[in-house]
Amino acid sequence: MRVSHGPIALAMVVMLCGCAALYTPRQPLPIAEVAQQSKSGAPPAQIIQHIKQSGTTYALRGSDFAKLRAVGVPDPVLDYLQQSLVDDIDLLTRYWVLGENLGGCSFCYPQPVDLATMQSGYGVVSAPSPTRYSASKPPGTPEWVPSSLPASRQRLNVDQLVELARSGMSDAQLIDRIRNSRLDNVIGVGGFTTIRTRPLGGLTGSRLAQLKEEGVSDAALDALQAQFLAQFIEAERLRYQNLGHGPGSMN
């Protein structure tokens, strides 16, 4: 009796195609698609869900939020973009303290962004490899985030920053003030009404965009975001070490 192998061969092809689809590397969502969906009038919740499903986080500088708002990205999406970056930095810091890492998965790290060309992603935007070793900050941290904080006890909050900008202080002086100050009310704020497993960043994306309208320059906004993230990394490093999981622990 002659046996037809057609159905079996077809089934094998289908299975192989299914496996190939299953193991296709995840592709980060281009920042241009976030902007395009916003321009098309998609609801913020829908845009946020799309970003979540892609697993993409963007390494946005302080001035990027006003630029995104200018092309139509709504405030809830700006806030999500900032908090998702904070969440990823928290995860990277925890792994750094515990001696773990994300390996060579470049799309697992915050993606570099160039809003001048509306492009994003490693291999698209020029940026050092996220897996590059650094003794002073978590691998995958954006290169523009400083590795250490000043020993100065000088304090600065966002309202004071706006006052200094409006007073006519030069960009160079303002940036120096930011880099040599500890920022107040920007980490772990928001009260206890929302249960979160990670700290809530007090410097939101919509607030960064608003600061541009209040007279803070792009350069100062970039310095503010960099200082905020550096301070956040320091706070989280100490938190994880104090939980008994970090270097020098007695546990």
Tell me the strand order in the biggest sheet. 1-2
Largest sheet: 2 strands, antiparallel
Quote the distance from N terminus to C terminus: 71 Å
The helix fraction, in percent, is 40-55%
Query: What is Rg?
Result: 22 Å
Question: Which structural category do the helix and sheet elements fall into?
Answer: mainly alpha
Task: List the secondary-structure elements in sequence, H or E.
Answer: HHHHHEEEHHEHH
Number of structural domains: 1
Total DSSP helices: 9
Question: What do the pLDDT scores average to?
Answer: 86
Number of DSSP E strands: 4
Question: Judging from the principal axes of the Cα atoms, what is the shape?
Answer: globular
Strand content: under 5%
Description:
- It is globular and about 45 Å long.
- It is mainly α and 251 residues long.
- It has one domain (29-244).
- It has a two-stranded antiparallel sheet with strand order 1-2. A two-stranded parallel sheet has the order 3-4.
- The relative contact order is 0.14.
- Helix 3 (44-54) runs parallel beside helix 5 and helix 5 packs across helix 8.
- Helices cover 49% and strands 3% of the residues.
